[in-house]
Amino acid sequence: MQSHGAQQSRLPGVSRYLVAATALVAVSYGMCRFGFGLTLPRISESLPVTASLAGGASSLSFASYCGAALIAGVLVSRSRGTAATVLAGLSGAAGAALIATAGGNAQLLCGVTLAGAAPGFVSPSVAQAIAELARRSDGAAVAREPRWQAIANAGTGFGVFGAGVAALWLPWRLSWSIYGGLAAVSAIAALVTERRARAMAPKQASSESASDSGAKRHRTFLAILPTVVLALCMGAGSAVFWTFGRSHAESTAGLSNTASLLLWCAVGAAGVAGALSGDLSQRLGFQRAWGLASVVLALSIGGVAASPPLLPPTGTTFVTLGLLFGASYVVLCGLQITGAALAWPESLGAGTAITFTAIAAGQAVGAASAGLVIDAAGSTVAFVCGALVCAAGGVAALLMPFGRRRATLYP
């Protein structure tokens, strides 16, 4: 029987890792992945970046993200999660450095591709590490795991906010230099704090190996398919806002470049609300939580289509919609981790790799489809379609076979 003092002593180690992991998520997603779009207008003033080249860069970033997520899933399933963290730091730092020093488009493309891989390596390794550390601690830690997962995932909001502020006030080369340094520092911090936390909570070999064996027997794609479907709907529906939301706000409300960047800062700041996704899932159950967040996401996207004629096309309107979008989107990302845990409870890292890859795949299809719809029928129709896809995901969550019970991570 472990003493209460011994149990309590382990929690600070986990907490320190949680801070480092949240910072790594913030840099990888908010800066390395989304920073290119925010700095693209300034980059285009220095380098001959055409629209087609920018689109190609985004496609390469998407491809590297998906590849990195799948590689990380394999690594964590073989207990090599720290290798994925190292790769996240290296790809983020190297990619940012290439962008910061780019003298031509070839180097810029290489940098965007490398930087885009960083978040793909991060999510599976962080999700698996938090799950393992919680299980090695005490009962209270296991109960807190959904909240810990949600807090780390909400790092995206901090990163988007920071990238927006940097785009407002700093030259783009300096911004990317800072992103590279932060990627390296946060990865090192995550590695060090994870190692110390594991040392404070030694592994229970016999029981863990038995559970791992059971996981391998029961880990089927059919079990995680419902979560993948929800991820595809979320990614496809939200893509129109991520891709065209800022330009639509500028053209409709006449927002300046600075004002539209403030809109993006609002999206990032609201994303911090994603830290509540674990509590939301425990209180409402996974299905209802997903349905509620999907409705809010759909309303925020549909609100863009309604401004005008139903909503006034003002900066206040778009900032409000950005707050709703950022909060609901990051909450849904956190719920994706919950869904992966429900499907593959002992292989959370691999499950997270699959579901987050599905989000990215949905975004790629959604962005391309939205562009075609805008060319054919206008942006209003495209935003309505995006809202409907998100709403469909909310309805699907209520009809899926999982979640017939209240969805804690380990029911």
UniProtKB/TrEMBL annotation:
Location relative to the cell: Cell membrane
Protein name per Swiss-Prot or TrEMBL: Putative MFS family arabinose efflux permease
Alphabetized InterPro entries for the sequence: MFS (IPR011701), MFS_dom (IPR020846), MFS_Efflux_Transporters (IPR050189), MFS_trans_sf (IPR036259)
Domain Major facilitator superfamily (MFS) profile per the UniProt entry, residue ranges: 16-405
Keyword Amino-acid biosynthesis: no
Membrane-topology descriptor: Multi-pass membrane protein
Molecular-function annotations in GO: transmembrane transporter activity
Keywords, in A-Z order: Cell membrane, Membrane, Transmembrane, Transmembrane helix
Transmembrane segments: 17-36, 56-76, 83-100, 106-130, 150-170, 176-193, 221-241, 261-278, 290-311, 323-344, 351-374, 380-402
An example Gene Ontology CC term for this record: plasma membrane
